[in-house]
Amino acid sequence: xxxxxxxxDMLTRIRNGQSVSLLSVHVDFSRLKLxxxxxxxxxxxxxxxxxxxxxxxxxxxxxxxxxxxPVIKEISRVSKPSRRFYTSVNKIRNxxxxxxxxxxxxxxxxxxxxxxxxxxVGGEILCKVF
Length: 130
Hints:
This protein is α+β, with helices and mostly antiparallel strands. It has helices at 6-19, 31-42, 113-119; strands at residues 24-28, 46-52, 57-62, 75-77, 86-87, 101-106, 109-112, 123-129. The protein contains three helices and eight strands, in the order H-E-H-E-E-E-E-E-E-H-E.
């Protein structure tokens, strides 16, 4: 079965996994997904991830608070294959009063909105996480 939007599939698997309190979820490997997971790990939204090279999958370990509620309250795709959303550096705003992040694909690579502002670059808004 082919997917038209691999990023949306990964975000949906994370969202669904956390809704039923799974410890980890598996997604097919891609370099773009790996870069998004790097940002989620750096920002503290996931516990860890591992690349199983023999099966070419990513195993994402989900993160929960001490009272077993998911760390990620909302994770959603913004720019889709059918409708792309771009932003300039001047229009990048804090998300959920600075508590959430937006992940952008820029000319400098895949970055969080904070890093994109620091590097003075805009780009395509891939997803938002809170």
